[in-house]
Amino acid sequence: MALTRGGELFTWGQNAHGQLGVGSQTTCIPKPHLVERLKGISLAQIAAGRAHSAVVSLSGAVYSWGKNDFGQLGLGDTEDRSCPSYIGALEHWKTVFISCGADHTAVLSKEGLVCTFGAGGAGQLGHNSTRNELVPRVVAELWGARVSQVACGRQHTLVYVPSLDKVYFFGSGEEGQLGDERKPNQLIPLPIDLPVNPGKSCQENNTSQKVIEIIAGGNQSIVLCKENQNSYLNGIATLKGEEADAWVSNSSLQDWNSIRKNIKLIFSSEACINGSFLEKRDKHFKTSKEVSGVDVSEVKRFYEKISMQPKVFQEVQREVEKLLPSLSSSPISPENFRVYLILPFLLQGEDDSSYHSLRLLAQAIMKLQPKDLQTLECLWSNLETAFFKELVTIYQRVSEKNLIDFFLEVTESLRDPFSLHPHETVTLQILQILYQVNSRTGFRVQANNFYVPAVKEIVALCWSFNKETSLWMLSKYPCIFDMQDKVIVHYTECKTLASTFRDRHLTALVQKHWDFPVRRWCLLEDIWTHLNDASTQQFSKILKVSFVGEAGQDGGGLTQELFSVAARTLCQPGTGAFCRLASGLAWFPSQVPSCEDTFHRVGTLFGMALYHASVVPVPFPRALYKKLLGLAPTLQDLEELMPVAARSLQGILDEECDQILESLDMDFTIMEEGGSTVAIELKKNGANIPVTRDNRKEFVDLYVNYVFNESIRKPFEDFMQGFLRGCPARKWKMFLPAELQIVLQGHTKFDWHLLEENVIYIQYKKIDQIIGNFWTVFHKLPEEKKKMFLAFLSGSDRIPCYALDCFRFSIADPQVENPDEMAKRERIQKSLLLPEQHRGISGPIEGFFPPTTAF
How confident is the model over 622-655, as pLDDT tens digits? Predict the structure, then answer.
């Protein structure tokens, strides 16, 4: 075995049991062969036994392979391994040294503890037995002794305790390994009686420092007393703190050649990069799927230093760029993932070379297997918030650069405007994954940090070309859109579906609209009849509502009025649809009404409202919109719906006194009120499981799950199926729960002066006295009267999400009869997308932006 300064491990020789770790069962390999599986692991030390091998990393992770008939690999079984395997039992053991005997292994921790495993027939494990050990076991007799060295022979083990200045021995002594007469097997550690006291000898030789070194051969034991430590092996090359200062300050040609050599040695090696920037004070020994062991602040300090010296920075960047395509795609240890955390902070320059390197890094990340990508996501989630936010900014910036370049190339007619190349979307994939990590960890970073401003230009570009290919491709990464852009994407899809339906049925002369006549006095009955009779294709058509016995054509306003009136009706006690809780919010009943289609119909109606850009103001809690998007509601959501119950549950979580919890006499049941009060078990045998400090989190989670999921499973499933039927578009899943809530419920806070500013006057001027009088009276109206006026104009007393800043209406004189004036008005109305003689807002599907209402 040979370990290079660049961190690569080479093996050669006999391989009957896979002891070379190259994944092959070839009996003999005569030339050095790279151990690929350990690529990227920052190795500190290597060891070879008779037919098994072991290595330890700088952060104490231990890997073993080869023959395993006695359990000498420490993996809990006796199966041979031809590739390095991680010894999970030694995780966080802080291993600093390892030694291999013929069929046993010993490891030494930073605290001076010794573990042994494998063959124990001669007592070489030191456990006062001759039993084999399949997993690492602490040598109890050495507990507290703080061993500094360990060495394994064929069937014996040596350890050195510097505080006692003694060498201890256990195992076979039949070949004279103890240095005197032959002895039987020694089962526990005992000191060796050396002929000369090494410490005394060193003093007599007037040496200022004594160093004991122990060596165990096959059947030999050697104890060396040296004057000073021979550091002929320095380990793999890693970055030292003072090196960056030297690199930046030295600029002579001779110094530069040496600097370039060191930069190449470190930054062309995945293992050397992973071994640099380790957390201080032994924190990196805790490396796991949750802890990276990387000192990110140290990485940032290094970047700040070398960025001041372009020549050094470019050299580092050049070596890293060469390395990126060969990064490990199948990591075997959490230590492998350090490179993915370090490199973004080293490559965060704002030049083309940095952007190119970041794209290559993103490609390497996306090549990881799903389980490995999950490990990286876990490490991302455990970054400090400031570092995580900076990581988001780095990928957001390169994504912005990619999309700007795309936009410029399209506008200059240099490329097809309807497709993005894979290298242009790979950083968007990383950004979306980071967003998902952020959402799972409680939105530590605000959503607007993920927005990519260039998206607005792309959206406008796609709209102007009347092609949506690029828009659909970008919609895979909803985090890069702000809410208004998501609205445009959603309604663009709705418009496209409606247009596609018309084109597909043009030859058959199928009507492009869905005529929807209803009677006010039996509104829900008429709606359900239409929905029952409708085919799947009907829901892609544009809805045209008419109220029987009333004049007026639907320009969007009557459709909106339909949904507004239906929403009010569904919330009335007599409909049997939704329950109104003490919080004032509506929720599903736990007992499904006798009519099994009720919630399927209601869901269909809500889906239609979303498809037709209409507000449906049922006061649902945020939890409903989470469930529609496949997200799990939390205790915080329960506080919105049932504040008293939620506060009680939070009190249970916060209670520190066991006696108080016991006095509550709670078990895993919940009381369900209906025709009669019934106790519902939250888990099997829940009535017999008391709530304690140990299981209270589980109780709260099950309680929340019951309210939002289990108790309403059937009605919500029906509602969801109907919702998907009513809205054939699917891009609405880009919305966040809060955004989807606004889209369906509309804005309830208004800027009435903004409404005044957006008015279009026909035959009038803003300075006319009658106009001034109108607004004077309007602004003096109470809020409810203003909302009634808004409902009169648009069919709803809420402003749709897409019209918060651009809601318009026009004021015209209905007495005008002059044909020239009429023609002029018609031209103006046409330019403003005003449907002639239509009442209400022109919705996004037909008129799109901006919506306008005639008054």
Answer: 999 999 999 999 999 999 999 999 999 999 898 8
Please give the pLDDT value at position 79: 94
Could you give the maximum distance between any two Cα atoms of the chain, in Å?
A: 130
Task: Tell me if 614 sits within 8 A of 554, measured CB to CB.
Answer: no
Amino acid at 415: R
**Cross-strand bridge partners of residue 362:** none
181-195, 349-363, 373-387: range with lowest mean pLDDT: 181-195
pTM of the model: 0.80
Residue type at position 624: L
> What mean pLDDT is predicted for residues 25-34?
88
Tell the burial category of 512 from Cβ atoms under 10 Å away from its Cβ (0-12, 13-18, 19+): middle
The DSSP annotation for 550-593 comes to ---EESSHHHHHHHHHHHHHHTSGGG-S-EE-TTS-EE--SS--
Number of helices followed by number of strands (H, E) in the chain: 28, 28
Sheet holding 149-152, edge to edge: 149-152, 156-161, 166-173, 183-191
Amino acid code (one letter) for 473: M
Are 116 and 125 contacting, i.e. CB atoms less than 8 angstroms apart? yes
At residue 821, φ and ψ (nearest 5 deg) are -65, -35
Grouping H, G, I as helix, E, B as strand and the rest as coil, residue 292 is coil
Our CA dihedral for 641, 644, 650, 654, rounded to 10 degrees, sits at 170
Q: Where are the alpha helices (DSSP H) in 442-544?
A: 454-465, 469-474, 483-504, 523-533
Q: Which residue type occupies 650? A: Q
Cis bond before residue 850 (omega within 30° of 0): yes
Retrieve residue 143's tokens.
């507990």
Tokens of 775: 């607004």
| Nearest Cα to Cα of residue 744 among 760, 756, 759, 726 | 726
Domains assigned to the chain: 2-226 (2.130.10.30), 242-347 (no CATH), 513-625+715-745 (3.90.1750.10), 635-708 (3.30.2160.10), 752-854 (3.30.2410)
The CA R_g of the chain, rounded to the nearest whole Å, is: 37
Name the residue with higher pLDDT: 216 or 829.
Answer: 216
Three-class DSSP category at 569? helix
Mean per-residue pLDDT over the chain, rounded: 83
| The token pair that represents 233 in the structure block | 């092996």
Average pLDDT estimate for 228-257 = 70
Statement: residue 420 has pLDDT above 70: yes
End-to-end CA distance of the chain: 88
Total length of the chain: 855
Instruction: Give exposure, 380-408, as e/b (b: 16+ Cβ within 10 Å).
Output: bbebeeebbbbbbebbbbbbbbbbeebbe
